[in-house]
Amino acid sequence: MSTFDSRAKEWDKLQRRVQNAKDIAQAIFRRIEPNENMQIIDFGVGTGLLGFEIAKKVKKVYGVDTSKEMLETLKTKNSDTLYIEPILADIMKEPLELVVDGVVSSMTLHHIEDLEKFFNTIKDNLRTGGFIAIADLVSEDGTFHSDNTGVHHFGFAKEELLAIVKKAGFQNADFTVIHEIKKPHKNFPVFLLTAFKGD
Question: In whole angstroms, what is the distance from residue 25 CA to residue 50 CA?
Fold first, then answer.
């Protein structure tokens, strides 16, 4: 059982985590105007903390995750009026065939080892003009997680990440610090990266 599988049932009980997802959603809405025709992939959807905020304003959200138990918890939160379609998949090994209007992600990028492959992979899931909106930690000292198993990046430096995104063919890339996660020993800035798929 993975770390995320074992923590799925307790995941939403941390208020800081719930609030973080809401703050990220609001930051996305300030940069990307959602509409009821949009179809969105939430990569690393987990229990849907970000995805359900997005789902309130778009046509459909596909929630992609490698953790079966996280998706099982997500399913218990689905309703007739607010729904995420769960997809158990590792898109780095088996890319999705979906083509959507946008890809959102919250606090998942630091678990991805090959960033160039990731951005090239999700670009293929976007229609021309489609967007990415990815939130994660600004470069940190490795103390954000109490256990760094499965963590490939201690946050991200702005210029390095923007260079990777632009190399993958995204345009109008923006990296903006949107808030901080306050932990007892330190505050950790969180950024939102947005960019668009060109022709």
Answer: 6
pLDDT digits (tens, 9 = 90+) for 119-173: 999 999 999 999 999 999 997 877 787 767 777 888 899 999 999 999 999 999 9
List all residues 6 or more positions away from 63 whose beta carbon is below 8 Å from its beta carbon. Answer: 42, 45, 48, 51, 71, 74, 84, 85, 86, 87
The two structure tokens encoding residue 89: 């998949």
Distance in angstroms (rounded) separating the CA atoms of residues 37 and 45: 20
Among 3.40.920.10, 3.90.70.10, 3.40.50.150, 3.30.450.20, name the CATH number for the domain at 3-197: 3.40.50.150
Rounded distance, CA 109 to CA 98, Å?
A: 20
Give the separation between CA 162 and CA 40, rounded to whole angstroms: 22
Under 8 Å between Cβ of 107 and 136: yes
Where exactly are the structural domains of the chain?
Answer: 3-197
- Please tell me the pTM assigned to this model: 0.90
Tokens 């489609």 identify what position? 130
Where do the DSSP E strands lie in the chain?
A: 39-43, 60-65, 84-88, 100-106, 126-137, 170-183, 186-197
Q: Is 130 helix (H, G, I), strand (E, B) or coil?
A: strand
